[in-house]
Amino acid sequence: MSLRAAMAHRNLLYLLSLKELRTRYKKSVLGWAWSLFNPLSQMLIFTVIFTYVFVSKPQPGDPSGLTNFPLYFLAGLLPWNFFSITTSVAMSNVQSGSGLIKKVSFPHEHLVFSVLIAQFVTLLIETAILVVALLLANQNVLVGHWQDAASSAGSYNVLVWLPVILVIYVLWAVFTAGVALALSAFNVFFHDVQYLWTILAQMLFYVTPVIYFTGRLPDVLVGRILRTVANWGPTGGFIVAFHNLFYDGRMPPALLLLYLAGLAIVSFAIGMWIFGRLSPRFAEEM
Fold it and tell me: Is the pLDDT of residue 132 over 80?
């Protein structure tokens, strides 16, 4: 079905998204707190490794001056987890929705979009906690040193930074939707896609600057190649933008923002096209 048909069934999307949110931590004692334990545990592990094993000092934020590896790590990990979890769960959601697909005519894209919406709500909650952590660290990256950032980036004002974070989050969600749609469609026909994506996502995590500073990469051929991929890769560019906003306390470069917008649009268009071409054959393949 087309995107227009999907919009026409938005009530169904709302119900599926609500179901996804309600059943995610059903019958668990801590409930939504579990969504925070995973990134916090990873933050603790990597902090110990980089601070006490490799004895590596964090790179100061520019111009914020923030030197806090856990906060740098969380600023990249939270959006990364949104991408990783959404794509993985969306594939499972489409595959497990075979009974619904065979019996009811509805936009199959909603099985992907419902996961996306539920995970986006989780991301917003986690981001709110990250902002509180930044404030408690006495390094208000969202408002601190805004005069220096404005003088170096043009007429940017601190009041527009929070909306920009949300805008980039939306672009990140649109990009993620495109990837999730394509993977979910292919996975119906080739179940190896889900296992292959687990490996590729792990590799992609380490070429995305979530746990390291690109400025610290060695100035040799391999380091230059990795720096380029980390800064301008399909996921690296988004993480760099989030680090600019949360950790550095400045606006991302205009060229990077244009690149991310184009990347999101292209990813979503390709994902919708692939899903639209393959979804009519889902019932017979399941």
Answer: no
Mind listing the pLDDT tens digit for each residue in 11-49? 666 666 677 766 765 665 555 566 667 777 777 777 777
Amino acid identity at 286: M
Round to whole Å and give the CA distance between 253 and 240.
10
Task: Report whether 59 contacts 215 (CB < 8 A).
Answer: yes
Which of 131, 115, 47, 46 lies closest to 83, judged by CA?
Answer: 115
Q: Is 156 exposed, middle or buried (0-12, 13-18, 19+ CB in 10 A)?
A: middle
Q: Which long-range contacts (CB under 8 A, 24 or more apart) does 213-217 make?
A: 213/58, 213/59, 213/72, 214/240, 215/59, 216/56, 216/59
- The upper half-sphere exposure of residue 14, i.e. CA atoms within 13 Å in the direction of its Cβ, equals 5
pLDDT of residue 134: 74
Structurally, the chain folds into a number of domains equal to 1
Q: Is residue 78 within 8 Å of 130, Cβ to Cβ?
A: yes
Buried b (16+ CB within 10 A) or exposed e, 206-221: eebbbbbbbeebeeee
Q: Domain range for residue 271?
A: 3-285
Residue showing tokens 């996975």: 187
- Token look-up 């069934």 returns 9
Q: CA 232 to CA 237: how far, in whole Å?
A: 5
* pLDDT at res. 219: 76
C-alpha–C-alpha distance, residues 283 and 286, integer Å: 5
On whether the pTM is more than 0.85, the answer is no
Alpha-carbon span 258 to 45, nearest angstrom: 35
Q: Look at residues 278, 263, 286 and name the one whose alpha carbon lies nearest to residue 83.
A: 263
